[in-house]
Amino acid sequence: MLDRRKLIGAAAIAALSGTVLTRLWPANAASGKFEIEKTEAEWRAILDEAQYAVLREEATERAFTSPLNDEKRKGVFHCAGCDLPLYSSDTKYDSGTGWPSFWAPLDNAVATSTDYKLIYPRTEVHCRRCGGHLGHVFNDGPQPTGLRYCMNGVAMTFKPATA
What residues form DSSP beta bridges with 127? Predict the structure, then answer.
């Protein structure tokens, strides 16, 4: 039987494990060398609070809050940090998760790393040019790739195609 003391103990162990794993395998995409590098102050000057939290601190926006989730026009989704083109609207689909989802990025647009923030490994997706955290990729997407690039809308901007 699970009592309150065991539940609190299990929660403490899980929290400590997450902290240890995060220290052993940091998930901070911005810790590498990137083509575009800025100081914290420089990033804060060009990003709003939500963009900074997601791109630079790896936060996650609340589901169903980004207007980009409902974006249906033809165009390209760019990194909100460095304006690198990331995803074509041709690969966007409604995953039902509440975040903009794509089955493939543009060539040479994103990089990945392993994230242990939830204790188990996940594949983090970040902008290959500035290292900004975009979201995660999962193996439950549609064909032809079978992948679901689940992106934070605040980490991107949308540029509609011109006629």
Answer: 110
- Bigger pLDDT: 39 vs 120: 39
Query: What distance in Å separates the CA atoms of residue 44 and residue 42, rounded to the nearest whole number?
Result: 5
pLDDT category at 5 given cuts 50, 70, 90 is low
Name beta bridge partners: 150: 101, 136
Q: What's the pLDDT at 153? A: 97
- 127 included as an active-site residue: no
Alpha helix segments (H runs only) across 33-146? 40-46, 49-57
- Residue 83's H or E segment, with its range, is none
Q: Are 27 and 114 within 8 A, CB to CB?
A: yes
CA distance 38 to 16: 32
Sign of CA pseudo-dihedral 51, 96, 76, 145: positive
Q: Which of 79, 127, 130, 150 is catalytic?
A: 150
Task: Give, in degrees to the nearest 5, the angle at Cα 80 between 77 and 85.
Answer: 35
Q: Find residue 114's DSSP bridge partners.
A: 123
Report which residue type is found at 148: R
Q: Is the peptide bond prior to 144 cis by the omega test (within 30 degrees of 0)?
A: yes
Separation in Å, CA 146 to CA 39, 98, 130, 137, 152: 37, 19, 27, 10, 19
